[in-house]
Amino acid sequence: MLVTRFWYIRPLDPQTILITGLTRDGLFLIEKGTITRPVKNMRWNESPVVALNNIEAMTPAERVVSGEGVGSGGLALVCPAARIREFTFSSASEAV
């Protein structure tokens, strides 16, 4: 799946650094390397340590704006897009 934005990111377990959040503004199914259709937004639960260990590919870093942070405009970040195997989506969400 292609996640275009993570939102409402919150800690769950400080021992394992488990965090939760939602996808927002677009979650898309990718089949055979092609975006085939939109998918309902999802809640996810993942440790950044596990996610970093499961990175299969990354793009060069780009400047992006996060969905949360100072004011209503979010925070400016510099980060790559990443393909992560076995990322844990837990349930469908009503987030738009």
Q: Got a strand count? A: 11
Radius of gyration: 14 Å
**Main sheet specs:** 4 strands, antiparallel
Q: Which range best describes the helical content: under 10%, 10-25%, 25-40%, 40-55%, 55-70% or over 70%? A: under 10%
Distance between the termini: 17 Å
Uncertain runs are none
Q: Topology, pairings included?
A:
Blueprint: E1 2-3, E2 6-13, E3 18-23, E4 27-31, E5 34-38, E6 42-46, H1 48-53, E7 55-58, E8 62-65, E9 76-79, E10 82-84, E11 89-92
Structure description:
This protein is mainly β and 96 residues long. Helices cover 6% and strands 52% of the residues. The chain is built from one helix and eleven strands. The strands form four sheets. Strands 2-3-6-11 form a four-stranded antiparallel beta sheet. A hairpin with a 4-residue loop joins strand 2 (6-13) and strand 3 (18-23). The longest helix is centred in the middle third of the chain and has 6 residues, at 48-53. The mean pLDDT is 87.
Summarize the structure.
The chain is mostly beta strands and 96 residues long.
